[in-house]
Amino acid sequence: xxxxxxxxxxxxxxxxxxxxxxxxxxxxxxxxxxxxxxxxxxxxxxxxxxxxxxxxxxxxxxxxxxxxxxxxxxxxxxxxxxxxxxxxxxxxxxxxxxxxxxxx
Amino acid sequence: xxxxxxxxxxxxxxxxxxxxxxxxxxxxxxxxxxxxxxxxxxxxxxxxxxxxxxxxxxxxxxxxxxxxxxxxxxxxxxxxxxxxxxxxxxxxxxxxxxxxxxxxxxxxxxxxxxxxxxxxxxxxxxxxxxxxxxxxxxxxxxxxxxxxxxxxxxxxxxxxxxxxxxxxxxxxxxxxxxxxxxxxxxxxxxxxxxxxxxxxxxxxxxxxxxxxxxxxxxxxxxxxxxxxxxxxxxxxxxxxxxxxxxxxxxxxxxxxxxxxxxxxxxxxxxxxxxxxxxxxxxxxxxxxxxxxxxxxxxxxxxxxxxxxxxxxxxxxxxxxxxxxxxxxxxxxxxxxxxxxxxxxxxxxxxxxxxxxxxxxxxxxxxxxxxxxxxxxxxxxxxxxxxxxxxxxxxxxxxxxxxxxxxxxxxxxxxxxxxxxxxxxxxxxxxxxxxxxxxxxxxxxxxxxxxxxxxxxxxxxxxxxxxxxxxxxxxxxxxxxxx
Amino acid sequence: xxxxxxxxxxxxxxxxxxxxxxxxxxxxxxxxxxxxxxxxxxxxxxxxxxxxxxxxxxxxxxxxxxxxxxxxxxxxxxxxxxxxxxxxxxxxxxxxxxxxxxxxxxxxxxxxxxxxxxxxxxxxxxxxxxxxxxxxxxxxxxxxxxxxxxxxxxxxxxxxxxxxxxxxxxxxxxxxxxxxxxxxxxxxxxxxxxxxxxxxxxxxxxxxxxxxxxxxxxxxxxxxxxxxxxxxxxxxxxxxxxxxxxxxxxxxxxxxxxxxxxxxxxxxxxxxxxxxxxxxxxxxxxxxxxxxxxxxxxxxxxxxxxxxxxxxxxxxxxxxxxxxxxxxxxxxxxxxxxxxxxxxxxxxxxxxxxxxxxxxxxxxxxxxxxxxxxxxxxxx
Lengths: 104, 482, 380
Known about the structure:
CATH architecture of chain A: Roll
Largest sheet of chain B: 7 strands, mixed
CATH topology of chain A: Ubiquitin-like (UB roll)
Order of helices and strands of chain A: HEEHEEEEEE
Mean pLDDT of chain A: 95
Low-confidence stretches of chain B: 450-454, 478-482
Oligomer: heterotrimer
Radius of gyration of chain A: 14 Å
CATH class of the largest domain in chain B: Alpha Beta
Structural class of chain B: alpha/beta
Largest interface: A-B, 50 and 54 residues
CATH topology of the largest domain in chain B: FAD/NAD(P)-binding domain
Shape of chain A: globular
Radius of gyration of chain B: 22 Å
Number of helices of chain A: 2
Low-confidence stretches of chain A: none
Number of domains of chain B: 3
Number of domains of chain A: 1
Number of strands of chain B: 22
CATH superfamily of chain A: 2Fe-2S iron-sulphur cluster binding domain, sarcosine oxidase, alpha subunit, N-terminal domain
Helix content of chain A: 10-25%
Distance between the termini of chain B: 15 Å
Shape of chain B: globular
Structural class of chain A: mainly beta
Strand content of chain B: 15-25%
Strand order of the largest sheet of chain A: 2-1-7-5-6
Strand content of chain A: 25-35%
Largest sheet of chain A: 5 strands, mixed
């Protein structure tokens, strides 16, 4: 029996690279989405809700539920399950609408 | 390919899953110029989702029973001259009078560059997304869609946890449990709300669809091999944990899916993969006024003619948009649609009189009948709302609770999803009601004498959010160039 | 449930709800009947504009000013969830010429009781920090306000205590001797009342026809764009000066003059397209493009903000762009309260109060002559 998904498909990925999540280093594989890279590091939540401040992460996994919205390199509301991880990406926990800087 | 940028394609296919691939390849091989648009970077759709090349998967077929069929379609696509437009998120489709169609899409690294693809015909093969029903704790991190867990595994080679309970209803659960277990997760149980007895009422349909029996047997074997118990007539009625899943409570259900008091049993786990079947993605078509039909599982699918055309001439559909039925049905429908479009555009009606078309139509009808039987067997029972509390979130985006919705129904007279939405904001958030629509329809119907109000077909004029800057950058209407 | 009441209101939109509310306040028993749910027509597709700023002196402005007062009272009586905000309006001009026109318009309004303060270009950003640079100035209208239309309607109906029968289509208006109204027929049975109020909005012409009356109400389509949730980014109802001329226009072609406003729930609403295309709900990319272009011109920060959804509403208008409020000249017992175009939310309370006064035989609170339904008598 395979012990990991990568074993199962006999994956020999290109060299891994690093991204950060709230400043912490996370290793990602080429071709993984931001959400997949975070799951790979055991991270399941990367935003808090607007009203209750509750943690959320990927839910539908296919870009339909928008629960996985993340702030990627300062840009809020990116769907982490669709956005490919790129070397050096800085992912930060998104609070609420992610646009606090625009408030007047 | 069109000879100049301003000349439309013969056909634009929206969605590169099994239906769209089959349709595009067929139309391309019949000599049409075809654009194949999809939001993903690779073809395959959700069913044939597979790792990106960078992950170097030598055996992607280990996660797919039917990889050979996809590989064949992909080879034909490469040879067909079809233009594959990856990373194209189509937000609306429009037609000016009797002129060509325009598919408005967003593309580019940030997904905010507007493009228009013009074509003389459209084949909509947008697929499906998972039907969800809320329960206490379903918004905790670690609770993921069953299809979502499958998708993340197939494309990113990751799991949501080590001990993953799989729950909900429908045949997809068996496939998901098999995949997760084969990829190394421990699956303590598969929790199925229906009794699987629905199938037994239609033995002839089953016999006529041996491939479905085969599929079930394959997944059944995998469950046995991994010693995964299947509990029918049961549901996860509560998730435990503060900031992530620590355990779930599973309760027995009666025939109507009403939880039986005192039957709750706790299962420790660090993730829950849950889903209640699939919903057709019809919004690009309903926005154009396409007629829909109500499938036996309560979902709304596009009403289609014998050759896959919608009620709007020039717009065809194939696969799950016309009703949930699986990848083989999708391929048959895609091929039929591809032939039908070529026949129409080239003025060759004889194309649709061939033996191949008759065979395809027969197979389609047979598989549709089976899909309807299966859909009815797994349709949510009216008692499911019995596991809700007033504090349970229904709308994940706007954090609208069961109590808030019940107040709008009993106190303010809301009787349908739209009115509940206007009065509570349930369904007004980012996902536009995709996750909560089924639940809101059920809760709204609770206030009516007849007990049920069919949810209306989805109307979402913007299929994906569009940056205002991109919207403003559209070429003005009379400018015909893209 | 008794099938008899003092008055039947046809239409569970904001106008019908206001008629029910003020009729009930006058001691009448009221039944509201609608073929759809509460606020399902134009009300549910509105932005909740309570504007005096866009109206020139005349009968509609009088109605709007009375309504503004009544909305302030209602905001005290109804739950806070109706999201009443006395936020004020800000009308901006792109240059000095536009500013001169605004000044002239504000001067004429001042005589009619509208308060407006001139905002020089240098002070625009004190009011709206995200406004584009280089604008010609504007006028601030503190009497403009906003309400969440569907919630306001539902709470008006609840507060009225009226019997609300949704999902029941009126198929006939029942009449007795001398053609006097005695109720309506629906699929669920007959409802009896000596008075029937036609508050069917854009569909008011059809209800009038059922009663043998004539009211030429026509639909004017308007799109609204709704953005993703945002913090308070736009403080007022902000629109460009050409909105006023667009509202008053008689042209059938697509016109857009944008109105931008925030909401307590987070999304910014962008409205202001108008076209006469019947009841066609098909998305118009061109209408959305113009709304987006004008909104991002006023507020460049919106260019990076996403529109999550859009909806179309059908504003009911009459040939002279004034509503029909009052008794029908030919059908005794029939009253009309429809045709408020894009201003129905704002004009609802005053309309309801007028109708209630007419029902009880009291003096209306203002001159209702200009709103006489009989002014559209068909040529013999």
